[in-house]
Amino acid sequence: MAGNTFGKLLQITTFGESHGASIGGILDGVPSGLSIDIESIQSELDRRRPGTSQLTTARKEHDIVEIFSGIIKNEDESLITTGTPVGFGIQNNDAKSKDYSYLKNAYRPSHADYTYEAKYGLRDIRGGGRSSARETACRVVGGAIAKQLLFAASKVEISAYVERVHDISVPFPPAYFERSVIDENIVRCPSKDIADRMIQRIEDVKNTGDTVGGSIVVVAKNVPSGWGEPVFDKLEADLAKALMSIPAVKGIEVGSGFSGTLMKGSEHNDAFRTDKVGKVNTETNRSGGIQGGISNGEEIVLRIGFKPVSTIKKEQNTVNRDSEEMKIIGKGRHDPCVLPRAVPIVEAMVALVLGDHLLRQRSARL
Question: How confident is the model at residue 170, as a pLDDT?
Fold first, then answer.
């Protein structure tokens, strides 16, 4: 199905299910001669990997990426891309399919059980199959390569952090933070005091068998002006599609977002100016680095809202395949809050979009 492929010139296709033998993907369109750091790719996967703290699912996966094609050793033993599709895979080693046998005839509330069956006439009950967030590990691999392409081409850097868990949020506006600051704590919030409160909230909710959501901020810096393809492939439109494709995402804001609707135009407009070397920039950045669907050279700032994880260990009302009402209690291994592990996924999807638009901008001019 076409829905398993994303992008135009930099194109990723993913495959695999949560409890299949493996997951993987193909990243096509990567230019030849790009120096590749495999350890950096693995580092991104390690950030998303389950079982790394008390805030994540207990599923233990090593998530070691294997590169099958598109990358070779250079004369100096470094790795470079060949320009052909980069194929990769990740083994599933800790699937416990029996945990999901209770779902043979039941639909979990707010899950994809009912909708997948409505679409395909059947579903893979083992961990949600293709609808599982397990698939996002493949996006992280593709995004890690896109990050290296973006930095090599334009020094673009992308950083995301957890801004809010439930009703606990950081007291400052969106900003760019170095990864070392974000990863100082297991919830990936750049404020230690707020992070401690977030961690306690997640643990408290987990102990009651419930879950919580929240929001993530992502900032991309050094994005040149001119990226974006109006009218239907505006930069924020492609970013919105990419981020809304992440499991549990329910909303996205660009720049000022919904708070901007409370302002007048005179309050919201980003006034232009020139710096000491004559470069055009803006005094404020309520546009979030995008105007008219095209990057303007300022930091791209996005906020992404995540709903609470649907699997809860509390009794809920549902129906079975015969439309009979019944009760259900969630089983298996699940995150009480997806946000800490979603940070590298958000960065990956932004990188894939920006990498695609980098290549499209190259093709737009002689």
Answer: 98
